[in-house]
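User: two proteins, same treatment. go.

Assistant:
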Amino acid sequence: MKIYVFGNEFLEEDNLAIKLAKSLPYDFVFCDDPYEILDLKEVVIMDVVQGLKKVEIIDDISRLDSNKMYSLHDFDLSYILQLQKSLGKLGKVKIIGVPQDGTVESLLEELRHVIESLKQQTI
C-alpha cells in the first residue's frame, strides 16, 4: 500500500506529515502537487488537517470542506478531490489526517497503528 504524503516541509504548521513519514518504514510517496494523484483509482493520502486532536482516517472528503478542516495548502488538495468527485472521476480515497498541533514523538505510535489497521482493510 502506497501512502501519498502532502505538506510543505518549509512551513512548520504544514510539515508534520512529512516528518512522520520520514520516521516510518512504509511505502510513502512525497507529493508536491495534488495533480499527481488524479488518475489513481484508489489512494491513501496523509496530510496535516487543522482541527484534529488525534490521527484520524477521513473517508468522506466532504468533511474537508464542510468543517473547514484545511490549511491553504490542503485547500488545493481538497478542491481537486471535490472536483474529481463532482465529475464522477474520484476513486476510493482515504485520508490519514494528522493533527496540526501534534509532534512526531506524540503521534508516531498512533500513526503506526492507523497505518497497520489500513493495511488490513481494502480501501
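Protein 2:
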Amino acid sequence: MNPESKAFSAEPDRVLGAELRALLDRPGEAEFVAAVMAGAAAAGVGSTRAVLGRWARLAVAGLIVAAVGSALVIRSTTEPAATLDTEWVAAATGSAAAAALFTSQNAPDATVLYASVESN
C-alpha cells in the first residue's frame, strides 16, 4: 500500500461533496414523491397513522398471546422433588419429617408434628 493513500485529512472533500449534492438534489424530486404517494394511496396503504394502527393491533394481540402462554407454562411447572435445604435439614436432624416441617412453604400438617414426636 502506498503510505500516501493512508493519509487522513480532516478537511471536507469538496469534489465528493459536490457529487453527493448533485445526486441528492436531482430535478423532479417533487414529482417523484407525488408519484410514490399516489401509488401508496392506490394500493390502500393510507396514512402513516393507519399503517401504525394496524401494526399496533397486531403487536397487542401478540403480547396477549405471549402473556397467556407464559402464564400457562409457569403454572404447569412443578416444584423440584427435594431442595438443597430439605436435604441439609434431613441430614442434620436425621428426620425427613423435620425436613418437611422446616423447609415447607405452607403451614405444617399436624401429622408431621406428631410423626416427629413419635420418632424420638
